[in-house]
Each structure stands twice: as structure tokens, then as C-alpha cells.
């Protein structure tokens, strides 16, 4: 049995029909009956949903769909409209965030060792279950985040994946205190991770193809901003690759100082060219990947974002223009983070 506010019978949104190039229109408009939340789930009335590059990978087929006609979107901000009978942490009317990590087994060796992001039976919002490119969404209580009621939901949405994944990528890069960080690609996740690094005393160099993104980087406090294949003005202690471009892996590795670390943040990456051991890996340079996040990552980042006052740059789109938002993201026309707003 669930407890609910007044909920309409149907919800409109977008689903991935036939994955393919964004120009072919892989998203389709849908209208579906609203599902009641399960015993441990929350039904949210979506206030805003960020548009992540992972959504683009799903729509274009780089990320193989796990179920037909899935609604993308995993940066969900919403108000609770109904709760399952076993829910105890949230009430109708609370503001809640739904993120990428949706379910883990809780019993495997990864879950038991606080590495639930590596759980072989993990499930994800907008991939294994419908996400937030819609007027309503259902999220598990155990994987939901409590969000402040006095914040603009459009500015909160990108924190729930772009922010959390950027935070984990920054930690995976093992940036030393006061270190020199290179950021390759400067979209939604990168512009948030850069602010965390700057708040912690790092020197940040941004390398990206977009002139608009380079301008934003300098406005946020980056020491330099150059082209994606440019050499940074000084050797790097750490680097993060946010652009899904395998060609940049050797470029970033070559820019590292001795014992530097490159963290690759994306869920999808084009092929990496052959690496030269002496140029790219010798002198104890490290190459690391980033896989999802733990719930503790989410809690730590959201608390940090509130404490240091992270500035979120957004490009809002009406929910009815989700296809345009993905097309703009694919073409590099989005400044900061794209966010869908129902209604």
C-alpha cells in the first residue's frame, strides 16, 4: 500500500525507440500510465532532469539498451507524490534526487568492501529502468538523495550525475594538495569538478575544443584554457579526460609529470591509439578508469557542493525539446549542463 498526493493517470515524456545517430531521431514522444511505487520506492513529480552524455550514448547506441523503449535521464529532481508502504525516510512533499546508480546486491565482495559501484548486479536509472525524461519517475528510497527545498531545481539537477561523477573522477586522479590538474573537455561534469579542485587549492588547466567552454573555464578561475590537443603551460600532476575521445588519452598522458595520474571519466570512449611506453607510461605515470559512483560519493559531493557554493552553469530546455537538447549536446552547443524542465 502506498501513500500519495493527488496524481494524474498518465505521464508524458521521451523514450529511446530505435538507437541510432541523433539526426535520425532515436527519441520518441510517449505517454504512459503512471506506475505506483513499489514498497520501498518513491514516485516523484519531476521538477527538472539534467541531460547527461550517457543519455546521448544510450540514444545513439554506443551504450546498448538493456530494455526496449527506455526513458532516459538520471539527474532527477522531483517532489515526492507517493511513497511505498515500507518507505521510512521520505514523505509526500519532500524534494528528492534520483541518480545514475539505482540498485546493488549489497552482498557481493564489492558491496561489502564499500565498492558498490563495481557490483556485478548493479542497475541504473535511465538504462535498466525508466528515468527522468518525463513528468514523473519512480526511484528506490535507498538510492535517493534528500535535496534542499529552497534551491532552484534546475541548478540542482546537474549535481546528481555530472557533479557526482566529476567528484569521483577527481578523487581517482589522485590530485595532490596544491597540485596541477589538467581537464580535457569542459562540459557539465568538468565545470563542476574544476570548481571542487579550485576550492581545494589546485591549479587548473582546461583543454577543450569549444571557445565558449574555454571562456567559462577562465571565468570560473582556471589558470589557462587552450585547445583540446594543446600542451598545457606546465607539467600536470593529474588529469581527467571528460571528452569521450580516445585520441586524447596519449595527449593527456604525455602532459603528465612523473608519477602523474590520468583518470578517464566517461562510460564510453572511442578507441585509444597505440601507446608508446617511453612517452606515455614510463616514469610511473598512471592510467585509470572511472566506473559509476557509490552512494557515499554522492553524499560527500552534495555536502561539499553546498559548503563551497558550487556555481552550476545551465542551459534549460522545455521537456518537449529533449530531442533538441541531445542534438545540441552532440554538437557541442551546450554551455555548462543542459537541463529539461517539465511544463
TrEMBL record:
The keyword Metal-binding is assigned to this record: yes
Domain Alcohol dehydrogenase-like N-terminal stretches: 38-148
Span of domain Alcohol dehydrogenase-like C-terminal: 191-305
Catalysed reactions listed for this entry: a primary alcohol + NAD(+) = an aldehyde + NADH + H(+); a secondary alcohol + NAD(+) = a ketone + NADH + H(+)
Enzyme Commission designation: 1.1.1.1
Keyword annotations: Metal-binding, Oxidoreductase, Zinc
Similarity section: Belongs to the zinc-containing alcohol dehydrogenase family.
Name of the protein this chain belongs to: alcohol dehydrogenase
Lineage of the species this protein comes from: Bacteria, Bacillati, Actinomycetota, Actinomycetes, Kitasatosporales
